[in-house]
Amino acid sequence: MNKDIQKYNRSLSETEKMICDILSEEINLYLPEAENKIWHGHPVWFLEGNPIVGYSKLKSCIRLLFWSGQTFEEKKLKPEGSFKAAEARYTAPEDINKKDLKRWIQKGKKIQWDYKNIVKRKGVLERLK
């Protein structure tokens, strides 16, 4: 795992660290080809320069974000923002359903919107896959 992501996880409370360690292990397991780094202050995984999944600490939880998640048609993922992102929120490690997480990561590989070029296209998203 990326050393900066390890440092990010270690900076959290014990419960938050446990959640993030599980998320990063599962994401790395199912997205081994992805580049991962701290992006805008949070761990994010990319395929060909396009953000796929990441997580961040909010006041009351850890938020797992899939940039193309609204297109996954998953009831447990809630819309986030004005584009195609969707999220799940966790307050305890046992909140994480690894079967759901695996399915969402696999959908993240198959269903992608072109966030990499969103600025060049002046806020217009085009579907890649």
TrEMBL record:
SUPFAM superfamilies: YdhG-like
Classification lineage: Bacteria, Pseudomonadati, Spirochaetota, Spirochaetia, Leptospirales
Name listed for the protein in its UniProt record: DUF1801 domain-containing protein
Start and end residues of each YdhG-like domain: 22-107
Matches recorded under InterPro entries: YdhG-like
Cross-referenced Pfam families: DUF1801
